[in-house]
Amino acid sequence: MPHAVVVVDVNDDNKPDIVVANHKSNTTGVLLNIGNGTFFPQVSYSVGKFPASVAVADINSDNKSDIVTADWNSNTLSVLLNIGNGTFSSRTNYPVGVMPRSGTLVDLNSDNQPDIVVANQGAVFISVLLNIGNGTFSSQTDYLVGSATYAVAVADMNGDNKPDIVTAHGASNIISVLLNKGNGTFSLTGYVVGVAPMSVTVGDLNNDNKPDIVSASSASNTVSVLLNTGNGTFPLQVTYLVGAFPYAVAVADINSDNKPDIVTANMNANTVSVLLNKGNGTFFPQTIYAVGGVPQSVAIADVNSDNKPDIITANSGSHTISVLLQC
User: Fold this and answer.
1) CA-CA distance, 257 to 212, in Å (whole number)?
2) Deepest of 78, 104, 260, 300, by most Cβ within 10 A of its Cβ?
3) What distances in angstroms separate CA 20 from CA 26, 77, 224, 317, 318, one per listed residue?
4) Integer CA distances (angstroms), 19 to 212, 269, 288, 325, in order
5) How far apart are CA 149 and CA 121, in angstroms?
6) Is-annotated flag, keyword Signal (predicted)?
């Protein structure tokens, strides 16, 4: 049951591969790219119980892509180091909060090493684990954000060259923005969005060099777009209709016009929605494409080397990955 997907080159052949978190089998699966947009069968590696998300980055500075899963039912992270040619070591586990639902890898303390930020669904805090430098991590530091944190993203939201944190809270219909004060603390502001936001991402949607916020509101079948005023505040959301129960959202330039577009995975419709950017941070109505059963994650990458971004979904209901090659 693939619950999450990322697409990244893990074996250094300049072809993006697929990495999934398999929720029921307690594994992460790696599908290496054959080179024409098709993939070898997955090779599975054991992780913690019910991995809900997966992230990939070079954790130990050896120029190889490593894997981190957030293990929802064991309250841990699993870290698997790449030992070369796209194979991985046995996992190392790190405790985090209750029901870790999402994790991202980003350098928080300017030491050029990716740290881990975790959204804990069953706690009122997020967890931060700093990279020690040899592929291991410090014990967690927790930051209060609110309940039912389903997703997390990191970017410099107010232009002060410090990474800030954005979280989605599925029970309170809130997106929280934690601005980095630079002394290891954050100031928190909440913004109301649609009902039950399950996913959040950031990107510059209106070409003003400021990161904006996009959240997928599952119970209202919408995405919310919050444009950045420039100082890390987001006073007004604009909503767009997508498919039934959007569980995940991604932002990328789909049609090569240098404007980031929005893609959602619609869990109850077995579809993805593509919303093309008009150019000023507003979007055309959705175009819908069928995928496998119960898509719960979406990624965008050029998987067949034709310089066009393709769409990949993890379909937990059909136990498949869908690859939509752009024509």
Assistant:
1) 18
2) 78
3) 11, 15, 26, 14, 14
4) 27, 23, 24, 18
5) 5
6) yes
At 131, the pLDDT band (50, 70, 90 cuts) reads very high
CA distances from 225 to 28, 214, 286, 293 (A): 31, 5, 14, 27
- 262-289 pLDDT, tens digit each: 999 999 999 999 999 999 899 999 999 9
Q: pLDDT band at 29, cuts 50/70/90? A: very high
Going by C-alpha positions, the residue among 55, 48, 133, 58 that lies closest to residue 96 is 48
Could you tell me the strand order of the sheet in which 246-252 lies? 246-252, 261-266, 271-275, 287-290
**Tokens 């119960």 map to which residue?**
294
The pair of three-digit structure tokens given for residue 180, joined into one six-digit string? 């980095």
Indicate the pTM of the whole model: 0.97
Under 8 Å between Cβ of 143 and 152: no
Distance CA 288, CA 266 (A): 10
Nearest 5 degrees, angle CA 111-CA 112-CA 118?
Answer: 85
Q: Could you give the CA distance from residue 138 to residue 136 in angstroms, rounded to a whole number? A: 7
- Collapsing DSSP to helix, strand or coil, 220 comes out as helix
Residue 145 and residue 176 in contact, taking contact as beta carbons nearer than 8 Å: yes
The encoded tokens of residue 227 equal 């444009």
Nearest to 232 by CA among 156, 125, 284: 156
Q: Does 60 have pLDDT greater than 90?
A: yes
Which residues make Cβ contacts (< 8 Å) with residue 28, sequence separation at least 6?
19, 20, 21, 22, 44, 45, 47, 51, 54, 67, 69, 78, 80
CB atoms within 10 A of CB 230: 12
Domains and their CATH numbers in the chain: 2-242+254-262+278-285 (2.120.10.30)
